[in-house]
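Feature request, filed as a ticket because there's no other form

It would be nice if the structure record came with a short human-readable summary line next to the tokens. Right now we just get the raw output. Example of a typical job, pasted below so the devs can see what we mean:
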Amino acid sequence: MKKAGFGFYFFLVIFVFLVMFPFIWVFLTSIKPPGEIFSSFNWFTKNPGLESYEAALTNRPLLRYMLNSLVVSSLTTILALGFASFASYAITRLPIKGKGLILGIVLAASMFPQIAIISPMFNLITGLGLRNSYIGLVIPYITISLPLAIWILSTFFQKIPYELEESAKLDGASPFQTFRKIIFPLAAPGVFTTGILVFIAAWNEYLFSLTINSSDTWRTVPVGISMYQSQYSIPWGDISAATVIVTIPIVIIVLLFQRRIVSGLTSGSVKE
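Raw output as currently delivered:
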């Protein structure tokens, strides 16, 4: 196999730099003294400090925002994977007519703009008395994450050989037993990858959280960070520090499970 030349690595470094530039700039801003952020546009500071991190954690309940996002994202991921797994198995493995139409409707639902359903969703959550609660956010999050999860999991379930399912039927296994003991374990990489994508999407969601949970105690990370601005100024140092703090958990999760994520993506795209 021919080794990559200098040009490949040169353009790779440029590409990585461009991709990482926003996060690098935010991090460099977070360690600058507050007065220096507005007085100069230098990349590096001669007096780095953690004043912005201290202010980010004390001026606003950032840890509370992170806890809210963690709970809501986790519940959304668990419920979305549970419903999507059964739905994907039924669509791809059971003799159901109109499978292509069903998947097309699911895909169309995932493309529906959130702003178009925010009003009826707000009225529904308010009528159920679920505003300023975790469940009040999980319900709309499920509506936007479930179609995506069904579409992705359907791709993985379709790649599993039907011979395994036929063998299980000959041994007397029911459809649920086949799903639980054969199909779901084989699709585990895809389920894991889908879970990561759903979790990140729920963690970063802004519109529903801003509209439904108006109490500061129940706000999630994206909305909480947007509330750092005051009437007369925007504390960019605090916002940058908060951004770094809330991004680190996601980066750690991706780095720890990158092999499983890559395995799940490739197993769903390569035919066995």
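Something like this underneath would help us a lot:
DSSP finds 14 helices and no strands in the chain.
Residues 268-272 have pLDDT under 50 and may be disordered.
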